[in-house]
Write a structure and sequence with these properties.
This protein has about 160 residues and is α+β, with helices and mostly antiparallel strands. The chain is about 15% helix and about 30% strand.
Length: about 160
């Protein structure tokens, strides 16, 4: 008998860490937002953050959802992964999202939130000695990210594409 995996969907500014083997952490419809997925197979433990904006110093922060900002979410998620038993040297990281969703022909997206989120995520990871092993970033289509806790399998589907 095959049982369906339990899916934990993360909303804007949310993060989660799981050691439940049958669980799948999910970010649905990432547009300009970015998500990082982290997995340590030896535990196993998985974590994910759904980040909206690159920098907490440019706007209002909220103690209710500090993970809304890349610069705050990355250290929070890495610390939670370590607390759950992950070792930094064994962490495999995927970076997904950062699309340019507001492009209008003849009027480029001057805010470039997606690009800025990707740059901020790479920088926040690099500051902690990490680099994504897998990236699905940029473009103009939204994406959905799924991270399987038991295996670390990362599934990314892109809006408007079959497969």
């Amino acid at each position: 008998m095959v049982t369906a995996a339990a899916e934990q969907a993360l909303g804007l500014g949310e993060w989660a860490v799981s050691r439940t083997p049958g669980e799948v952490l999910t970010c649905l419809g990432l547009g300009s937002c970015v998500a990082i997925a982290i997995h340590d197979a030896s535990v196993p433990v998985a974590g994910m953050a759904h980040m909206v904006l690159p920098d907490s110093t440019a706007g209002r922060t909220s103690s209710a959802s500090p993970a809304k900002f890349v610069d705050l979410a990355v250290p929070i998620l890495v610390a939670a992964m370590v607390e759950a038993g992950a070792q930094p040297a064994r962490m495999r990281i995927a970076l997904v999202g950062g699309a340019s969703m507001l492009e209008v022909p003849g009027r480029p997206n001057t805010m470039q939130i997606g690009d800025r989120n990707v740059v901020a995520a790479r920088a926040a990871l690099a500051a902690r000695g990490f680099a994504p092993r897998e990236e699905h970033v940029g473009g103009t289509n939204g994406r959905t990210l799924r991270l399987h806790v038991a295996t670390g399998q990362v599934d990314v589907s892109t809006a408007g594409q079959r497969g």
